[in-house]
């Protein structure tokens, strides 16, 4: 197996672990193609790896189906080796956060700096572009986006999120879709059921981002959900880097579940109040945290704050 296929297999596992997928669910190559920004053939090979491991089942002429979600629910994923796409991605993230990379970069410079091929680098840059923190120039090279990378920027981010996310819950257009709420609850229950201890920082961030984006999508305002998604993209890297203890992760997860409890009871006013307080507490934690001079992106600490 090559490194790309192994890396994609790990990403598929992460997606399964944070998406509350059930036994027998169809895993389509097309859905992963748009999610990971790569072609179908490598995804097919990655799914083949998972089939060999007994995690998914290959059904002739039909595709791949999730066979045993419990098999990957308990154990952390192995760390990426130093030459993997994941390791290079994290090195680029750390160098950007530490301002060791300029705003504009060329592929040649990045290939030389990180010792990767052009094909491998483009896979990584495609992922970064999909996450919203780099853009391809019209001519040559790439330009990094402005990130939320200071206490002041975080305060402004959370002020905006308090305004729009609370408004979304209070909006007359808000619709508490029971299917969406049930999916959000399943994801949060994964965290509550031990995910706070075993999931990686990236997985925790994705689980928590999906909670806020899912509720924003129910607001009935496409601009609101687009704004929440963009803010999550901008804060992604610093969230990977921060250090939080397990009790903080469990606490924010309990707050998410309390908001869902209020919505399930039909009390959107209480859900909005809980959301306001939830984001306010997160803002205070950011102001106190030493997260803007901290350790390596994607390191061993538990993050994924709301």
Question: How does this structure look, described?
Answer:
The chain contains 12 helices and 6 strands. By secondary structure, the chain is mostly helical. Strands 1-3-2 form a 3-stranded antiparallel β-sheet. A 3-stranded antiparallel β-sheet has the order 4-6-5. The longest helix has 21 residues, at 178-198. Helix content is 62%, strand content 6%.
The gist of it:
This protein is mostly helical and 306 residues long. It is built from twelve helices and six strands. It has helices at 3-18, 29-36, 40-52, 85-97, 107-114, 118-131, 151-170, 178-198, 201-217, 222-241, 246-264, 268-288, and strands at 26-27, 56-59, 63-66, 104-105, 134-136, 142-144.
Give the tags.
306 residues; mainly alpha; three-stranded antiparallel β-sheet; 12 helices; 6 strands
